[in-house]
Amino acid sequence: MASKVLHAIFTDDDILMQAVKALREKKYSINEVFCPFPVHGLDKALGLPGTRLAITSFLYGLVGLAVSTWMMNFIMIEDWPQNIGGKPSFSYLQNMPAFVPIMFEMTVFFAAHLMVITFYLRSKLWPFKKAENPDVRTTDDKFLMEISVNENNVQAIAEVLHENGASEIKLIDNK
Amino acid sequence: MYTMSSKLKLFSLALIIVGAIGLIYGFIDAPSSVEDVKEMLHAEDAAHSGEVAMGSSGADEAAHADEHAEHVFHQLQNKPWAAIYVPALFIFLISLGVFVFYALQNVAQAGWSPVLFRVMEGITSYLVPGGIIVYIILLLSTLHLNHLFIWMDPEVVANDVIIQNKTAYLNTPFFLIRAAIYMIGWILFSKLIIKNSRKLDDEFSLTLHKRNFKLSAMFLVFFIVTESMMSWDWIMSIDTHWFSTLFGWFVLASILVSAVTTIALVTIYLKGKGYLEHVNNSHIHDLAKFMMGFSIFWAYLWFSQFLLIWYANIPEEVTYYVSRLEDYPVLFFGTVIMNWLLPMLILINSDFKRVNWIVIFAGIIILVGNYMNFFVLIMPGTVGESWFIGIPEISSILLISGIFIFTVFSALAKAPLTVKHSAFLEESKHFQY
């Protein structure tokens, strides 16, 4: 019976949080929680490690800064120097203030777009992807908690869930 | 209840005494006649005499040297005045900025900050002594005791068409009246709002809460207009020919970032002494976010002003930057590093914003950087190339910070460090990021 899971439905995010805390206190492991909206503090209550998305964003920003510097140097200094307003067109550094808005925008552009793409890849989201949530109601107003169980603890876990306000509890085969 | 420790009292008094002695020395040390300056310049020339060798005619050179000596004489006479004016204005504006931040919390009905209200109220108390000091300096300037503002000198105005066109606004009586209106307005609003906050300690009343909301909103409107005009009057008019339309914003950015930093530093100090039991690291985190955000806002305005003037390259505008780039290159670019680059890189990490010593480290960089910012705003128009951060400058900082520390911490001791009744107090106590 190793491949069985419990699906518990909750109707309120506060009750869900309470149940998560109660289960974690008893050292039962929660596979996944499906929510219709982000629940503040749920990641910490589940003990999920902190996101590293911000670090990637910072690195992408640096890439954008480098690309824009190279790009403006190539376009405006090396390939086709242009005299705009009498500004020095033969030195990147002396003409740099004019390029700062571009460097800034490219930094933001790279950081934002690549971060979103990273997020999609990391969450395994792509076009035509089939939905993973086991119950359509989690896209509306219900919260679903999925817990792996075995013969020894299924009863105990179900009781904890019941005590903590689960409105439905289902035992199903894990796919 | 907080009581100012005798150590801190002694420390602030020591700062005041050392600062006052140094400043008096600065005034005595300033040359009293053109002859002194000539001697001084001569000695300097002699020191690197190898380079002095010119073929121009003697009379011409002598006349030129005389003119130069007189020029340097005026700059050096201004030096101690400018030295005290920079920190006096800067630290006064910090306390004003703290009060603005406090009013913003009231208007935004912020839930995170009520446990910090008393800290903000304490720092706001410096508005009165700080305002008096700044007003006295401005008054003495109008009495021609110094030449910080060249437009106050009738001889200069008589030979200057550009200033003549501005005399409808830039004249001494109107200048003093405006300064009085700003200061009385700010102080009056701060007294009223703080009085209501103290009354709320006795008993919660929705009427008082609403009254403070309305007063704060009115103050913010009054502030944004007067702050802009204040920055033209007290800072921009030093470089009388030059003007910038975003100057008020630029000064505002500097004020806000220094103000939030000061709140953070005082909060961490009090927390370290075991007070402010409801302040947790999420409050520090929020303050650090504001520090970083306003640093970037400052850099945005600094660059916006620079880019347009650099690109347009109009002679009457670029002189402002030419004098700064030629005579103050280290400070000029140093402000960008200290007010934007370093705070951004230090505080960009979410976890670092919750670590007290990192916030203190970034805060000190921001405060020094913004002092430098005010220095670069005021000094080029008053002492020009004769600037130097020496005894009068450092003593002025010590003197004013001594008065600031003494006023703020004795004001903090006058009321419980946490407000007793505020509509959002419970939320603030349990604030968690």
TrEMBL record, chain A:
It comes from the Bacteria. The chain crosses the membrane at residues 58-77, 97-121. Keywords: Membrane, Transmembrane, Transmembrane helix. InterPro entries: ActD. It holds the Pfam family ActD. This is DUF3341 domain-containing protein.
